[in-house]
Write a structure and sequence with these properties.
The chain is an all-alpha fold and 502 residues long. It contains 19 helices and 6 strands. It is 55% helix and 3% strand.
């Protein structure tokens, strides 16, 4: 072949020092472009779509004393098979992230047992395990590569698009249109109005949950799906849907994602731009702390709330919530009422704080450590494939908005399950098993979280392939004529390959 070269390849099938179980040498790949990959769709990928759709259905039913919803039913049916597959290695190597999430789950169950008689709390324990670890497993096993994530992203965005007209009509007519149209629809919220608009809940029990759900679609709507030129249009769809929730947390999530997107588009030619962003954020925090007579948290909450009363309440929640954690650091309070002034409601608008107050610092710290580890590892993998980069960008931006907004609102019920599901849906990025990785990081475009849109592609929900401007080069054995014919599925991201693990 005229294009055969003996130069050392820039991209290889495995990180340096690792060998393929099924071949003597990994295929070399053109350093100038990412070749197309025929990524296998996970056999369970459809379950992720079912779960996302089930989240928006406002229906409840009981089996004995157990109250179920469509998304809980999905978790109940799938939990045992997913758990067995997880420990059988069907999701690849069990990572430290997985163990931390499992530890947090088990500690929370222990904390509930310590704080309440078992006979009164065992159903709550089971529901928590389902909605936390069960949802995490669902994301972990149903989304295993870029094509899986792209399919999930399309389903997610199309659900947001489907709910949009109902949310707009609900805000204008001041009636929960979607719930009224669903036979047996339940959970009409009494959250009221803001700016003369009813706070839309669509199919969720509260506008906060609806807003958190739709706002999380911005990152993947911009980077992961569709054509580059239509990204602003998709962003407008998510923005309008988020606005009609009239939720502070949802708007914070949306705004942070906009900041991340604008920063990336502006600074994309700079290496280490996200390291610079982190230092800039730390510097801003320090400056605000030095110049203001309030903490940076108090300043952020004040300017990020709809009104001063809401801001003041969130500040009180933080002050009294941390006081409760300090007094009950190991096993928390369980579901017992927390100590606070009599004029404060029992609602605690801070998801991360709720975990610490209810289940203690061990559960909370394990959970947050898993999240930080996931983001750090996913961000630092030097990716060679545009499709992988687009999925990573969408995940990190969307998840970053959700995680930051969790400091101002509480995620419960459907979004309490969606959040750990979304975490599980991104672990493949940290695992590295189905990624095309640059083996020499010094030659990578950027070792930070390289947020790169994939080129124009069709809107097919079955996923995309990265453009292939360069051929896959034969290995040295193949050039000598001694290599066996290439088997189907032996691309860089073939099923079952052992790649870089976290």
């Amino acid at each position: 072949m005229s294009n055969v070269t003996t130069s050392v390849p820039r991209y290889t099938r495995f990180p340096a020092g690792q060998a393929d179980d099924g071949a003597a040498a990994a295929p070399e790949v053109d350093a100038t472009a990412s070749a197309p990959r025929d990524l296998p769709i996970s056999g369970l990928n459809w379950l992720a779509a079912v779960f996302v759709v089930a989240l928006i259905l406002p229906v409840q039913f009981s089996i004995g004393t157990l109250l179920l919803t469509p998304y809980r039913l999905v978790l109940v049916v799938s939990f045992i098979p997913l758990l067995a597959m997880f420990f059988m290695g069907k999701a690849g190597k069990i990572l430290l992230i997985d163990w931390l999430i499992l530890f947090s789950t088990l500690w929370a169950v222990l904390a509930l047992g310590v704080n309440h008689p078992f006979g009164t709390i065992f159903e709550t324990m089971g529901i928590y395990v389902l909605e936390f670890f069960g949802a995490y497993l669902l994301g972990r096993l149903t989304i295993r590569n870029a094509r899986d994530f792209t399919r999930f992203s399309w389903v997610f965005f199309l659900v947001v698009l489907f709910l949009l007209p109902f949310a707009v009509l609900e805000g204008i007519t001041k009636r929960p249109i979607f719930i009224e149209l669903i036979p047996g629809g339940t959970g009409i919220s009494g959250a009221g109005e803001r700016w003369g608009i009813r706070r839309a809940q669509a199919g969720f029990v509260h506008p906060i949950l609806y807003g958190a759900f739709v706002s999380a679609a911005l990152g993947i709507a911009w980077f992961t799906i569709g054509r580059r030129g239509s990204a602003p249009l998709r962003a407008v769809v998510v923005g309008i849907a988020t606005f009609f929730s009239m939720s502070t947390g949802a708007l914070i999530a949306f705004v942070f994602q906009v900041i991340f997107i604008v920063y990336e588009l502006t600074m994309k030619s700079m290496k280490r731009r996200w390291t610079l962003f982190a230092f800039g954020a730390l510097a801003a925090y320090t400056i605000v702390d030095l110049l203001s007579n309030r903490t940076p948290f108090h300043v952020l909450v004040t300017y990020a709330s709809f009104n001063s009363a809401s801001a003041y309440n969130r500040i009180l929640i933080w002050d009294w919530g941390t006081h409760n954690v300090a007094n009950n650091p190991i096993f928390g309070l369980g579901l017992n009422d927390w100590v606070r002034p009599s004029f404060m409601s029992s609602s605690m608008d801070n998801y991360w704080l709720v975990v610490a107050v209810r289940y203690g610092l061990p559960a909370s710290l394990a959970y947050m450590t898993a999240v930080i580890l996931l983001v750090r590892r996913a961000a630092r993998v030097p990716l060679a494939d545009e499709m992988d980069k687009a999925c990573r960008a969408g995940f990190l931006v969307s998840f970053g908005g959700l995680a930051l907004a969790a400091g101002t609102v509480h995620y419960w019920l459907s979004i309490g399950a969606f959040f750990p599901f979304f975490i599980g849906a991104g672990v493949w990025l940290a695992e590295g098993r189905n990624l095309r990785i640059v083996t020499d990081p010094s030659t990578a475009e950027d070792q930070d979280a390289t947020i790169t849109r994939s080129p124009a592609s069709g809107p097919s929900p079955v996923g995309r392939r990265a453009p292939g401007a360069g051929p896959v080069r034969a290995s040295a054995a193949a050039r000598s004529g001694s290599a066996p014919p290439t088997r189907r599925g032996a691309s860089v991201a073939s099923r079952g390959q052992r790649g870089r693990s976290a």
